[in-house]
Structure formats: C-alpha cells, structure tokens
Design goal:
It is a single chain. The chain is an all-alpha fold. The protein has one domain. The protein has helices spanning about 1-10, 10-30, 35-45, 50-70, 70-75, 90-95, 100-135, 140-150, 160-175, 200-220, 235-245, 245-260, 265-280, 295-320, 325-335, 345, 350-380, 385-405, 405-425, 430-455, 460-465, 465-490, and strands spanning about 175-180, 185. It has a two-stranded antiparallel ribbon with strand order 1-2. Strand 1 and strand 2 (about 185) form a beta hairpin. Helix 2 (about 10-30) packs parallel to helix 4, helix 6 (about 90-95) runs antiparallel to helix 7 and helix 8 runs parallel beside helix 22 (about 465-490). The chain is globular, with a radius of gyration of 22 Å.
C-alpha cells in the first residue's frame, strides 16, 4: 500500500491529477456540461499518460464535477449537473439571504464526507452490495422509481397537490418520442426532432436558469447591482457545528447514496432526490425545506458524491457500469489491462489498491480544489447583474447546444424557460417536474417489461422479497408524517 501511495504522490502524477480536478470544477460549474461529458473528454488524453496519472485524472474529474455543479445552483439557481438539481432548492434560498458562503462550504465538506463514506463502503463491502444490486430486476426498479416519484410531494415548497401535478406533467413529457417497447412514435406530430424524446438537461437549464433571468427582468431588478449579496464568509467552526448537528443526515444520505449508486442505471441525480425527500420526511423542520434549511443542503450533496463511489461497485466487481461515467471508465480500465469482474481483486490487486487510494485522496484534495472554484465563481458574481444575466443566457444556450449539437435543444431550453416562468407565476414547483422527466421513463419501461415477463401478472411486483420491502418503505414514507404528528400531539393514531 505504501508503494502505491508514493507512486501517486509523484509530482508528475499530482500535476495531472490537480489539472483533472480543475477541469472538473469548470465542467461542473458550466450548465449543460455534465460529469459524463467531462470524463469522456479526459479519457482520450489519459491514453498517453502513465496508468496512475490517467486514472487520477479520470477520478478527479468525476468527483469534482459532481460537487461543482452545486456552485451555479447556489448563486444562479442553475444546476451545473443533473445531480445538482436537488441542491438548487435550499442552496439558492440561502444565497438570497446572503449566506451563499455557508451553503457552499456545507456542500463542499459534505461532498467530501459523502465521497469518503462511499469509497470506504466500496472498499469494504463491494462484493456484498454488488450481489444485492444484481438481484434487482424490472420489478424492483419499478418500485424504486415509484418511491422516487412519491417524493415529488415532498421536494417542493407550497401545495403538495401542485407538486404532484408537476410530477405527473413531467412524466407526460417523458412519454414524447419513440415507444421503448413497440417503437411507435408518441406525441411527435411528425417532427423528427421529437423522435428522440425531450432531453431533461436542456429542460432543466431552461426551467431553473432562463426562467430566473426572465423573473429578474419582469421584476425590474436593479441591473447595475451585484447578482447576489456577498454576505459574510462562513467560519470553519460554524460549518463544522452545523455538520455535527446533522451528522445523522450526513451518514444516512451517504449510505443511501452509495446503495442507489450501486444500482446499475440509477445514478447520482436519483440518489440526491431520494436523499432530499427522505431527509424532509424524517425532519422536525419540514416547513423550512426549500427556504434555506441546512438539512436540505446536506442531504443531496452527501448522497450524490457517495453515489459516485457506489457506482464503482458493480463496475469493478461485475463489469456492469453503475452509471454513464463508469461506463466510459470501463473502457479505460481495459486499456490499462484491468479486466473488471469477480476475479479482478485477485488478478489485479495492485491496480485495485491504486484505484482505492486515488478515490480516497481525491476526497481530501476536493476541499482546496472546491474552495478555489467557489472563490472564482464568487468573484465573477461581483460583476453587475446585467453582465451576469447576459452570461447566464449565453451559457444556457451553449450548454443546451453542446449536449447533442442540436439547435432543437436550444429551442427546447427557451420553451422550458418560458414554461418555468409561467409555472412559478402560478406557484407550481419546478423540481417535481424535472423529477418526473427523469424517473418517468424508468417507471414506464420497467413496468411494461415486467408485465411482459410475467404475462400480464402483477403478482411478482408484490411477492418478490425486495419488492415487498420497497413497497413497505413506500407506504411508511406516506404514513409516517401523519403518525408522528399524532404521536407528538399525544393522540393515538387510528388504524
């Protein structure tokens, strides 16, 4: 282990490592440029580097980009990556109160803590978690998606009914395109651009970013003033005390994020939403969520970085990528003669120790790298609001176009910007709509494929052990708040 550590601390390896993390900060903080895109751009460069330096660059980009997506989410209400969408709710509210520094320092430290927990679980229980993840079939994934959608009534401020309507509308939008089973065009109206469906990334940029610009223009905000209040810098003692008070949320969200990350195809964005919803369900300050609550900041950012580590579990042990990032990384591992699978720890013990060390040290290096990114972004926001809002529009257009090099995605982003502005005027929350677009295809596909497998029989959806456990958790999440309220009032809950 010491030999691998000394190799990683070589100046050449550290230089490429830190360069990758700086690139990850840029990728994550630029709306529309995802961590997947960042890793895809770095992998070709890593071909020409020593294995240690190449792996360090790849892991540095993936972990750093997930965190830095919270920076524009905090200052501008634009999630830098899909995994940062859940953090938008409370982070932006804190920034509006002049406490952006507090929100981002909580983000940074909880990202590092969540990442450490995820990597330690990867090291300690990878084979066991991977075996459990492999037991998930279409039936279990269906209920996992339903559980996530049920949280749409939680991850919104205001009317629960409006939150449910927004989630259902998001699911409806997700049905646009070619039917995943029969290949029949649905709601395309003969437009070939709609055949591939509506990408939720341009939609997310429009809903959260462009709509904020429109709101500022409509409210006739002073365009010569700074974009956000600088506020006071958060002290290390204050940040540490807040994390300690919410240590249960940090641990629970990190464990949940690791588990969801280990499920192939789930990803950090779903982990963040589920952790946010669960944190609100279990909190004694539910009404503060969405208005600048510490738990609303800590839960999603702990979960999404832990999910990055969790995604490596099926990738290394079974050769099955946990998300799109590890799908790219698998190709890079094969280039380094590392063949993921059940025997990888026996055939490549040295390389496995190196990967684990890189992942652990990256969480430590995330603190200075993230701090530098926060300071750089805060400096930009000292510019007048008119300059920053113009930049938001430009980067929103570029981010939407860069996804598929398609002007259609730019028009889609503009349309969702207008839709987001209108929905906010009608007090309809935007977060459940995005959640519906993300989870809708997962729910529909697994429901239909599951019914095809069972010949139309719904029984397996309820009788399989893991399904029964998720259904029980789903029911408990719906009933627990009412039961707890009755217990606090001293009134026995009726059965």
């Amino acid at each position: 282990m010491l030999h691998e550590l000394f190799q990683l601390l070589h100046p050449t390896v550290l230089a490429y490592w830190l360069a990758g993390m700086a690139f990850g900060v840029f990728i994550g903080a630029t709306p529309g440029l995802t961590a997947t895109m960042g890793v895809a751009l770095v992998v070709p460069i890593s071909f020409y580097l020593p294995p240690d330096a190449g792996l360090a660059m790849i892991l540095g980009v993936s972990f750093t980009a997930i965190f830095s997506g919270d920076i524009p989410a905090t200052y501008l209400r634009i999630p830098g990556t899909p995994a940062s969408a859940a953090a938008t709710l409370d982070n932006f509210a804190l920034a509006q109160q002049g406490r952006a520094s507090l929100a981002l320092m909580l983000d940074l430290w909880c990202s590092a803590i969540g990442g450490l927990i995820g990597v330690l679980l990867l090291i300690g229980v990878a084979p066991q978690l991977a075996k459990l993840a492999m037991r998930f079939t279409n039936y279990e994934y269906f209920w996992l998606g339903v559980l996530g959608l049920s949280l749409s009534a939680v991850v919104c401020v205001g009317s629960t009914f409006r939150g449910i309507l927004a989630a259902m509308f998001g699911m409806l939008l997700a049905t646009i395109g070619l039917d995943m089973v029969s290949g029949t065009a649905r709601f395309t109206f003969g437009n070939s651009d709609l055949s591939g469906g509506l990408s939720f990334i341009p939609a997310m940029i429009g809903l959260f970013g462009l709509s904020e610009v429109l709101r500022n223009v409509h409210a006739q905000a002073a365009l010569s003033t700074p974009t956000v209040s600088a506020g006071e810098r958060a002290s290390a003692r204050d940040v540490a005390s807040r994390i300690w008070r919410n240590k249960g949320t940090v641990a629970r969200s990190s464990l949940l994020g690791t588990f969801i990350g280990a499920l192939p195809g789930a990803g950090a964005d779903i982990a963040a939403w589920v952790a946010y919803g669960l944190a609100q369900r279990l909190s004694r300050r539910k009404e503060e969520f969405g208005r600048g609550c510490d738990e609303g900041v800590i839960a999603p950012t702990s979960a999404n970085n832990a999910a990055v580590g969790g995604a490596w579990i099926p990738a290394l042990v079974l050769g099955i990528p946990g998300d799109s990032v590890t799908a790219i990384v698998l190709g890079a591992l094969l280039m380094y003669n590392i063949k993921p699978g059940p025997l990888v720890f026996e055939q490549n013990p040295g390389q496995m120790r190196t990967i684990f060390l890189i992942a652990l040290i990256t969480q430590v290096l995330l603190i200075p790298a993230g701090s530098a990114g926060i300071r750089a972004f805060a400096w930009i926001l000292r510019l007048p609001r008119s300059v920053v809002m113009t930049g938001v529009v430009v980067f929103s257009v570029l981010g939407a176009y860069a996804l598929r090099n398609s002007l259609f995605d730019v028009w889609l982003m503009l349309a969702f910007g207008l839709l987001g502005f209108a929905l906010e005027a009608w007090r309809v929350p935007l977060a459940p709509l995005i959640l519906g677009m993300i989870l809708g295809p997962m729910v529909e596909e697994n429901l239909r494929v599951g019914l095809i497998k069972s010949g139309g029989d719904w029984t397996p959806f309820f009788t399989r052990p893991i399904c029964a456990g998720i259904v029980a958790l789903f029911a408990a999440s719906l009933l627990a708040p009412a039961v707890l309220r009755r217990l606090r009032r001293g009134i026995p809950a009726s059965v």
